[in-house]
Prior knowledge:
Blueprint: E1 2-6, H1 13-26, E2 30-33, H2 44-54, E3 57-58, H3 62-67, H4 78-89, H5 93-100, E4 105-108, E5 111-114, H6 130-139, E6 144-147, E7 154-157, E8 163-165, E9 169-171, E10 178-181, E11 195-201, E12 206-212, H7 216-225, H8 230-238
Parallel strand pairs: 1-2, 2-3, 5-6, 6-10
Antiparallel strand pairs: 1-11, 4-5, 7-8, 7-10, 9-12, 11-12
Helix pairs in contact: 7-8
Bound molecules: zinc ion (ZN).
Amino acid sequence: MRYALFGDIHGNLEALQAVVDDFLHKGVDEVICLGDIVGYGANPEECVQIVRKLGCLTVVGNHDHAAIGHLDVSCFNPYARTAAFWTGKHLSHESKEWLCSLSFIEYCDAFTLVHGSLPSPELFNYIQTIRHAEFTFRLMDKHLCFCGHSHVPLAFFNTDPIYYTIDEIIDIDPAVKTIVNIGSVGQPRDERPQAAYAIYDTTKAEVRICRVDYDIAAAAKKITEAGLPQPLASRLWLGK
Ligand code: ZN
């Protein structure tokens, strides 16, 4: 079985189309979305429609919640806050209702899906350190958990001591609880501007982080033309 897992699209239509083309070309059996379909980029409605058309299992992200008014954005930085209000005005009623219907946690076969982390998933905490990973390991009843949110591909293994890797090929051992952050389609922050997503191949027992070039100039130009904060356009070139 081969799963394509993608998330943190953030309204970046060019990046999403490039990723979808890439995994359809490579061939996968199932597709999964880890949330933050909207927020920051200039095509939130189009991105929601593509994800819905894929008919994939999807968990909600904090920016999805912010755009539909379900999250207090006072904790967002000013650019994210501006983008959340803009996004809310550029989503159809139907798309908002669909975002509203998404769950914080989903289960698929032998793994768990969450946008941020498992303890109080509605708080959207990050898993960026071994300590953070430990809190999620404690709540995992399956050996594998996929997440997004930090926009940095990374995997943690519940060995003694807990080990982590930024390698692009992650071996999955059912005897070792593993958390995989699949990176971001539309706003990577690991200083590599290419869109990121993951393919989990259960036969090979490995997750591979895939990187895809896309038309950054077009996505950045649309952000500028929409009147969204300029740093949201320029950061796409930097991958941070
Ligand atoms: Zn995000």
